[in-house]
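From the pipeline queue, job 12 of 40. The input is one protein chain; the requested action is below.

Action: predict structure.
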Amino acid sequence: MPVKIVTDSVADIPPEIVKELDISIIPVILRFGEETFRDGIDITNDQFYERLATSKVMPTTSVPSLDLFARTYARLAEVTDQILVIMLSAKLSGLYNAARQSAELMEGDCRIEVIESGAAVMQQGFVVIKAAQAAKAGASLGEIKDIIQQTLPRVEMRAAFDTLEYLKRGGRIGRAQAFMGSVLRVNPIITLKNGVVEPAGRARSRAKAIDHLYEFAASYKHIEGLAVEGAACPEDVDRMVERLGAIFPKDKILRSRTTPVIGAHTGPGLLLVAVMGDK
């Protein structure tokens, strides 16, 4: 029986790829006051950003219940005896620990292994896609784990923000805290290293920040996968895809919208580029 792949909604994998590769998604929980939503299911991106702009209550995020993980595992255990779970960086969320705890409580013969990606968004998404492609091709769980370990060092991202205020409020700012003193005068650019948000540069304008994202992708000697994501800035995504078409086939560039849970920590101005390849 083929290995089944599970990941979280923060991986931002385009829906058509999720369906094609039969990836199971665990939705993170989003809250506006007393109202609760499942990321990517109960609230659309447009609804979320409209609400973010008008709500007096800042959204918060939380890990779904162990029961949700258990029900996902149980459903998959009906069709497989091996499940591989790839979760968001444990330094950013409790998802990894929840996935592991739920797996330890499962009964039966289904083997469940949980891996921490040390990443997020399509930086993590590319790893999950590689794993799911291997699973679909009939690779064993051990072989897929090897593929993941080979892929993790080859994925990276850069993200440009209008402000880091949302990351600061959500406690996810990490070493990018160093930017806060000049946050009103620069467009900060961040990356994820070892599962932690870190500063990667700063620009004096939005246009210069976008230049930085392009130059980051263009610095790769070989690109296997390229993705562009935006929160609520579709025009910037379109322009970035057009521009990146000069260094990578435009029709193979993955487009994704960051989920509301990401938006809760970044705000509407997030634009990011994720690369899988070799420098």
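Job complete. The chain has ten helices and 13 strands.
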